[in-house]
Write a structure and sequence with these properties.
The complex is a heterodimer of chains A (453) and B (313). Chain A is an alpha+beta fold and 453 residues long. Chain A has helices at 2-5, 8-31, 50-65, 80-91, 104-107, 116-126, 131-137, 161-168, 172-175, 191-203, 216-228, 246-259, 273-279, 291-299, 301-304, 337-348, 350-359, 376-379, 409-417, 420-429, 435-450; strands spanning 37-43, 68-74, 97-100, 138-139, 142-143, 146-147, 153-154, 157-160, 285-287, 307-310, 314-315, 318-324, 327-330, 398-401. Classes of the chains: A alpha+beta (453), B mainly alpha (313). Chain A: Keywords: Signal.
Chain lengths: 453, 313
């Protein structure tokens, strides 16, 4: 009966109405809680509260945007996160967003979604981005990831100020106070002063805890040392610059001299060895993020309360600070790329960065210079202000650095992983090579890396 | 019509019967049944061994960006590298040194166990097998703590006896010794249990006959035990050589290849070059280098076994 009463025009009108309702209703479906889903793999933070801080931020964003987010924290013990990245890039399946170790952005650039739109909006708000983060995350003119706050670290000097005062006569708290100005003697904080202090502390039984093996802490501080001597091994075009390079030779000779003041087993130290040296009270100085101090605060409070963080020393070409950033990448084979970009943009906001940094006792370093004034770095202690100089502040007159820059990323990654800078020093200091022999070896290694495209 | 109809209806029926008979005969064949039963294993080997091996071979012929085929270019580049030659020698020193030590210690332990009365033997056998049943990544971590550069418990004990601390992992020869030592500790029980099984299968009458002929203990070992165990020794050595050459976790946990790459072996170097440095094709080429080295060892060991078998027949 109903059908019988329907006219042709009526049916058409009803059909059009249904279609219009469908089209207008689509956004409403989103608003009702189906803004899509995301699978995210973030780095499993060393600091126990780091994951909670990230989880809280992602939950806040997902509820506001009605996006279902599956959050995995994958640790780097046994390189699990790097292996997950390699497997996902090869199989073209997996998470939508993944935390990428410094050099992995370049390695997987061809399967990472460009995020220039996100970066440009963040730069417009917060100013220039860290040049090392840009060197690592930009490939062929496009940003392939968003430099992350979580996990990103600087490696300044964490100094036992009492031992340094007693044995080397340097009052590091006066030189680098917890204020925006350098103190007296800060301009004398050079690698030469550093060597003298290392010799004195070494003789007193508190050698500096500087690793010289193949792990990142070793490669990073030696990278900053070489940068401050202007000692590069490869130019930006991929050409080895070892031969007839007096700056490189000077840096190696300096590092060999410095290594004589260190414990004789530093060649086998890993990333935890320097932390242990500081925490045990056996060492007067390490280059590290505040994690060593944080563990000392928990386990050896009498050591922690005598620690003070100061910038790395300056060399003939300036002062450089070892910087090791994480980057969040979006796979270009992911399903929900726009939503992924929105999440990363939210995490790049100042409020998100401050939340992450504050919850990790100041460990995390945001990629913008305008974000180096978070309150946590002033208030954290004991002693209060101990990590004030952990982020790179304007009065440090320093530049961030990563070892082997400005070599093309694909070559620099191999040089970094193979720790060519510490090995060339070890060949002279431990292996008995002359500097010329070591440089010859270095040049052959670089040639091998460059060959094969 | 009826005849035609019967013919038309009958022809397909007979063809179907013929097919069924052929199919039935094919299905009843022993080789077919054997093949079908082995199919899951073949699929497993195909998926987990043949495919990855083929993929690794293909990968090793690509350039770093995996955009062009460079043939044997990666192998050529590796052979020009000082570090890679060092890796080849170290892998050989590590594998051969560790296997010889494991074989000797396993042989000695097997003999000791063999002469313990049956009642107490089970207890000792269980205890001696412990290193082999602990996951090596875990036990190596224990060793690493004992060798730790700054807080070595072994050095602490040495210091009590006024012996100077040893840089277990910091000095090249000590580091090489340490990785071999851990591998020997882990792998000796395997040799022990294999040799013990072989010893138990040697008939007592042979020893009795040798004793009647006036053979000493050494002569019994030289002319009775060793010839009877020869094939087991060869197979065990070959198996262990393959596993030891491919070892990764001990070097990775203990030294990470250091100092100065002087403890790097094929597997750890392949991981460093392939995964960590982002050069998968060259990493694949490094790992494939194990193949010819192992093939040479396998050829000589298996040839020895075949020759002995022919002599015995």
């Amino acid at each position: 009966m109903v059908v019988k009463g329907m006219t042709r025009r009526g049916a058409l009108r009803s059909g059009a109405g249904v279609m219009a309702a469908g089209l207008l209703g689509a956004p409403m479906v989103h608003a009702q809680g189906t803004g899509g889903s995301l699978r995210v793999a973030f780095w499993d933070h060393w600091v126990p509260t780091g994951n909670d801080a990230m989880r809280a931020l992602v939950t806040e964003w997902s509820q506001k945007n009605r996006v279902e987010v599956t959050l995995d924290f994958i640790n780097t013990t046994g390189n699990q996160l790097q292996l997950a990245g390699a497997a996902q890039a090869q199989s073209k399946s997996g998470h939508d967003i993944i935390s990428l170790a410094p050099w992995d952005v370049g390695t997987y650039a061809s399967v990472l979604e460009p995020v220039d739109d996100v970066i440009n909006r963040l730069i417009a708000k917060y100013g220039p981005i860290n040049p090392v983060a840009e060197y690592l995350a930009k490939r062929e003119g496009a940003w392939r990831g968003v430099p992350a706050t979580s996990g990103t670290q600087n490696k300044p000097a964490c100094v036992r100020f009492d031992l340094m005062q007693e044995h080397a006569g340097l009052d590091v708290r006066a030189m680098w106070p917890a204020s925006g100005q350098p103190g007296p003697g800060a301009d004398q904080w050079t690698w030469d002063t550093f060597l003298t202090a290392a010799e004195k502390c070494g003789k007193a039984g508190f050698p500096f805890g500087l690793p010289m093996g193949a792990f990142s802490d070793a490669v990073d501080w030696v990278g900053a040392l070489f940068a401050s001597y202007g000692a590069s091994m490869m130019d930006e075009k991929g050409k080895p610059t070892v031969r007839n390079n007096p700056k490189l030779r000077t840096a190696i000779e300096y590092a060999v001299r410095l290594s004589k003041t260190l414990p004789n087993d530093v060649w086998a130290w890993d990333d935890a060895s320097n932390n242990r040296a500081l925490i045990s009270g056996k060492s007067a100085l390490v280059f590290n993020p505040p994690s060593a101090w944080a563990v000392a605060k928990r386990d050896q409070p009498q050591v922690a309360e005598k620690c003070w963080t100061i910038p790395m020393p300056a060399g003939p070409e300036g002062r450089f600070l070892a910087y090791l950033p994480w980057t969040s990448g979006i796979w270009n084979f992911g399903r929900n790329k726009q939503t992924a970009k929105a999440l990363l943009e939210f995490l790049g906001e100042r409020s998100s960065a401050e939340a992450l940094t504050s919850k990790t006792s100041g460990y995390d370093i945001p990629p913008f210079e305008t974000m180096t004034d978070f309150k946590i770095w002033e208030t954290e202690g004991p002693p209060v202000g101990t990590v004030y100089n952990y982020p790179l502040k304007p009065h440090h007159k320093a530049k961030p650095s990563i070892a082997f820059a400005p070599a093309p990323g694909e070559f620099a990654a191999q040089m970094y992983v193979q720790a060519l800078n510490t090995k060339v020093i070890a060949r002279v200091a431990q292996g008995g090579d002359t500097v010329d022999q070591a440089l010859g070896w270095l040049e052959r290694e670089l040639t091998t890396i460059v060959r094969g495209g | 019509m009826a005849a035609d109809g019967t013919l038309v209806a009958g022809a397909p029926a007979s063809a179907a019967n013929g097919r069924a008979n052929t199919m039935q005969r094919f299905a009843r064949r022993r080789s077919t049944i054997a093949f079908l039963m082995a199919l899951p294993l073949i699929a497993l080997i195909g998926g987990l061994v043949v495919y990855p091996a083929g993929y690794a071979m293909w990968l090793s012929t690509l350039n770093r960006r995996m955009t062009a085929n460079i043939g044997l270019g990666n192998f050529e580049i590796l052979l020009d590298s000082d570090t890679f030659w060092m890796v080849i020698w170290q892998s050989c020193i590590f594998a051969v040194g560790a296997v010889i030590a494991k074989a000797l210690i396993g042989f000695w332990l097997a003999h000791m166990l063999h002469h313990i009365p049956a009642k107490g033997q089970r207890k000792w056998r269980g205890m001696l097998l412990i290193p082999w049943v602990i996951p090596p990544a875990l036990s190596t971590l224990g060793w690493w703590w004992m060798f730790d550069p700054s807080y070595s418990s072994i050095n602490w004990i040495l210091n009590i006896f006024a012996v100077p601390a040893v840089p277990w992992l910091g000095e090249p020869w000590w580091a090489r010794f340490s990785v071999i030592l851990v591998n020997v500790w882990y792998g000796s029980p395997f040799f022990m249990i294999m040799y013990l099984a072989a010893l138990k299968s040697v008939p007592d009458q042979l020893y009795e006959a040798a004793a009647i002929d006036g053979a000493t203990g050494w002569q019994g070992l030289r002319y009775v035990t060793l010839p009877m165990m020869q094939n087991i020794i060869s197979i065990t050595v070959l198996f262990s050589l393959i596993v030891t050459f491919a070892n990764y976790d001990i070097v990775r946990v203990l030294t990470n290849g250091g100092p100065r790459d002087l403890t790097q072996v094929f597997a750890s170097y392949a991981f460093q070059v392939g995964i960590l440095s982002g050069n998968l094709p060259r990493g694949a080429a490094v790992s494939l280098f194990m193949f010819p080295v192992l093939a040479v060892f396998a050829f000589f060991i298996l040839r020895g076994i075949n020759r002995r078998n022919r002599e015995q027949m």
